[in-house]
Write a structure and sequence with these properties.
With 439 residues, the chain is of the alpha+beta class. It has three domains: 182 residues, no CATH class; 84 residues, Helix Hairpins (Orthogonal Bundle); 153 residues, Heat Shock Protein 90 (2-Layer Sandwich). Helices cover 56% and strands 18% of the residues. The chain is built from ten helices and eleven strands. Strand 10 and strand 11 form a beta hairpin. Helix 8 runs antiparallel to helix 10. The mean pLDDT is 88. It binds adenosine-5'-triphosphate and magnesium ion. Its EC number is 2.7.13.3. It is found in: Cell membrane. GO terms for molecular function: ATP binding; phosphoprotein phosphatase activity; phosphorelay sensor kinase activity. It holds the Pfam family HATPase_c.
């Protein structure tokens, strides 16, 4: 059953219930009103008798109480003294039933209780006629009004369900297109209600899926591209060796080994990047003093820097800065930044590592800045720097060994720690990366 049929059914049931309750209560109400009326009437007859007989019930059992055959059936009338004694009774039903289940009215004279009139399914001819008339006219009128409300509410329901289900119906083709893998959709948002919110959410979901799909395609293309070069080199070297037919000297194997090392690094980097990208990077956080951590990383580059005459300068804050980080992941991130700084700085240059406390929008951060006096990066290239496989100069980077993954890994790891990474650079003067980690 579709939503429209369900809503329609609910409305129909509602109208039927309301009509049923209306009939039940009006009929019951009429019944009780007439019961009370007949008791009042009976009380008036008995009171008349009492007054006419000089304030006494003497001979009341002979009182002239009108009675009709039809209504006397299953009916009765009774008078009880204030003490509860039956003074008068008439009708098919015994006095006990009449007083137990009938309607009653107290009879008073000069404010004094002189008796109680009871009637059970008892009425005079006129009241009986009036009752029948009212009941039958109410019944026909009720039917008419009921039919009218039913039609009106069903029409209203039809319009209402159309109104409620129309936006949903409009959404269905778009959702089906998404299900088929077509994420390039933008459903116009026409209202601010729940339907509008659902539409917005669907648009957002489609955009997200589209981005993910783009990234996946791009990644596959990039990885294929990166794998092709080292594999081609390995293959041609192996062919050379085979066609040479001589013993293989260790030097001949060196370029092959180089390429294998590159491939291994590529695969390891990709693995880390995938973890960071999908937000599933396991972090083994522990309170870590930043300065000794940086010292250890710098230590790894000391030999290389000394050889090339590059000075690594430390500018650490006087107080120690302890942050809750995964030391291994953050070592990897800083290692990537430092290796870039050294790689892209010519001999006799300088690399500065700065650690400081930073207050930003009411929060405290440990700020680590790694600056170099290297070749710098053109301003128009800065926005792409953290993208995977991005290299400012394709050819030279490849020659100097870069894959273009170091910065995207650094960014992924820093962001996994709720931190930020930013870059400033001036061509020919140097580059400076700043990492902020919340304390
Ligand atoms: P990988 O780090 O994967 O071995 P890579 O160093 O080329 O390779 P990234 O670290 O992501 O890759 O850096 C991307 C590019 O940004 C580099 O190719 C380089 O052109 C530029 N770059 C990064 N750091 C610097 C720097 N300190 N000075 C100048 N250029 C830089
Ligand atoms: Mg790098």
């Amino acid at each position: 059953m579709n939503v429209r049929a369900k809503l329609f059914g609910i409305l129909l049931a509602l109208v039927l219930i309301v009509s049923g309750v209306y009939f039940g209560t009006t009929q019951g109400y009429l019944e009780s009103r007439f019961g009370h009326f007949s008791a009042t009437e009976a009380a008036a007859i008995f009171h008349n008798f009492y007054v006419e007989h000089g304030g006494s019930w003497e001979g009341v059992e002979q009182a002239d109480v009108p009675e009709d055959e039809s209504r006397a059936e299953n009916g009765g009338i009774a008078l009880l003294s204030p003490e509860g004694k039956v003074l008068f009774h008439k009708g098919e039903v015994d006095a006990e039933t009449v007083t137990l289940h009938g309607f009653h009215k107290t009879i008073t004279e000069n404010g004094k209780n002189i008796g109680m009139a009871y009637t059970y399914r008892w009425a005079t001819d006129e009241t009986l006629q009036l009752k029948d008339y009212i009941q039958s006219s109410m019944f026909t009128e009720g039917l008419r009004v009921g039919a009218l409300t039913l039609t009106a509410s069903l029409l209203l329901g039809l319009w209402l369900t159309w109104l409620l289900t129309l936006p949903l119906k409009r959404l269905i083709p778009s959702i089906q297109r998404i299900a088929k893998g077509n994420f390039r959709i933008d459903i116009p948002v026409t209202s601010a209600d729940e339907y509008g919110q659902v539409t917005k959410a669907i648009n957002q979901m489609a955009r997200q899926l589209d981005r993910a799909e783009e990234t996946r395609k791009q990644l596959t293309a990039d990885v294929t591209h990166e794998l092709r070069t080292p594999l081609a080199i390995i293959q041609s070297q192996l062919e050379n060796i085979q066609s040479g037919g001589r013993d293989v000297s260790p030097e001949t194997l060196l370029p092959i080994q180089d390429e294998v090392i590159r491939l291994t690094k590529l695969i390891e980097d990709l693995h880390q990047l995938t973890l960071a990208d999908s937000g599933r990077l396991p972090l083994d956080r522990q309170p870590t003093d930043i300065a000794p951590l940086m010292d250890r990383i710098i230590g790894k580059f000391k030999l290389d820097a000394d050889e090339r005459g590059i000075r690594i300068v430390r500018k650490y804050a006087e107080v120690s800065l302890v942050v809750d980080i995964d030391p291994n992941r953050m070592t990897q991130a800083f290692y990537n930044l430092l290796s870039n700084a050294l790689r892209y700085t010519p001999s006799a240059g300088q690399v500065v590592c700065e650690i400081d406390r930073n207050e930003h929008r009411g929060a405290s951060y440990a700020a680590v800045t790694i600056s170099d006096t290297g070749i710098g990066i053109p301003e128009d290239k800065l926005p792409y720097l953290f993208e995977r496989f991005y290299r400012v100069e394709e050819a030279r980077s490849r020659h100097s060994g870069g894959m273009g993954l170091g910065l995207s890994i650094a960014k992924g790891f820093v962001e996994a720690h709720q931190g930020t990474i930013t870059v400033r650079s001036k061509i020919g003067e140097g580059t400076s990366f700043t990492v902020l980690l919340p304390i």
